[in-house]
Structures are given as C-alpha cells and as structure tokens.
Amino acid sequence: MTFRIGQGYDVHRFGPGDHVMLCGVAVPHDQGFVAHSDGDVAIHALCDALLGALALGDIGQHFPDTDAAYKGADSTLLLRHVYGLVCQRGWQLGNADITIIAQAPKVLPYRQQMQQRLAGVMEVDLDRISVKATTTEKLGFEGRKEGVAAQAVVLLQQA
Ligand code: MG
After folding, report:
1. Cα 1 to ligand 1 centre (Å)
2. Which of 26, 38, 88, 154 is the most exposed place for a label (fewest CB within 10 A)?
3. Which residues contact 90 (CB under 8 A, 6 or more apart)?
4. Quick one: how far is CA 106 from the chain centroid?
5. Local structure of residue 118 (DSSP, 8 states)
6. Closest CA to 52 of 86, 90, 101
7. Reduced to 3 states, what is the DSSP secondary structure of residue 3?
C-alpha cells in the first residue's frame, strides 16, 4: 500500500484567558481554552488524523489528560512526537487539510502564520499544509461562541 488517509476532530470550550492557541499560534481573544494541555484544537485534530492514518490509536491514549506531564502542554511538542512516530514507521506527509470552525476569534489574519508554524514543526514544505476557517452562521456551540472545533484530514505516503 502506497497511501494512507486519516481524519481527526477536536473541540475545546472557552474559559478565562486572553488568547487561544490555534495551529501553534497565539491568537488574541477575550477568552482562553479550558483544557489539560494548551487546548490547541487544530493541532489535536491533526495529531488524531496522523495517528488514525496508521491505526495508532488517538491523542488521548498517547497523551492522557490524567498525566500531569501534559498539563498546560505545548501542543506543537505533541505534534512533533506524533509526526516522529509516522516517520519512524516509514511514512511521510503527503498533505494535511485543516478546517477551524469558530465564530470567534477571527482566524483569517493568522492563517499564513499557522501554515508556517505547522510546516516548521513537522519540517515539511509549506504547500503540504492547508489551514482553512469557517464560522457556523451563528448556529451551534461554535456559533454561540462557547468554543472552537477543528477537523483535519491527512494523506500519508511511503517515504
Ligand atoms: Mg483536545
């Protein structure tokens, strides 16, 4: 088999704070994320997609939220670890496509920075990473500004 595909989804709710981490970028906001780690939903969805592509379980198994080691964890480090597992097994990223679903904060101004950050962490070409954003037309929990969701799809190819 030459290719593997994976998808991931994650949600974090807003709580006290002055920024949210999305794709490893601090986006100013009037709230933060309630989470054991830094709450970076986009990276968590991406990690789950990478793990899913190789049937390696999910992010909760690899980094349990009962483990004090991951309290406030920088999610870029989790991504680096997960992509390391992918590479160790002889695979590389074909491409990743991430959608951030948020009524607030506005993601568009940070999109390029997010792509650069993820490409840097995984050490892959910039054009292999897509970051998109959508609102939900004020519907649902994202629309009520209760939190942010993210979806990710990845294609892996044999290195
Ligand atoms: Mg999460």
Report:
1. 30
2. 88
3. 158, 159
4. 17
5. H
6. 86
7. strand
Q: Is 100 helix (H, G, I), strand (E, B) or coil?
A: strand
- 89: CA distance to ligand 1 center in Å? 24
Residue type, 110: Y
Q: Are 35 and 41 in contact (CB under 8 A)?
A: no
Pairing relationship of beta strands 3-15 and 25-28 according to DSSP bridges: unpaired
CB 92 within 8 A of CB 126: no
CA of 88 to the centre of ligand 1 (A): 24
Quick check: bond before 105 cis, omega within 30?
yes
Classify 39 in phi/psi space as left (phi over 0), alpha (psi -120 to 50) or beta: left
Reported as type and span, the H/E element at residue 101 is strand 91-101
Q: Is residue 25 helix, strand or coil?
A: strand
pLDDT tens, N- to C-terminus, the chain (159 residues): 699 999 999 999 999 999 999 999 999 999 999 998 999 999 999 999 999 999 999 999 998 888 888 888 899 999 999 999 999 999 999 999 999 999 999 999 999 999 999 999 999 999 999 999 999 999 999 999 999 999 999 999 998
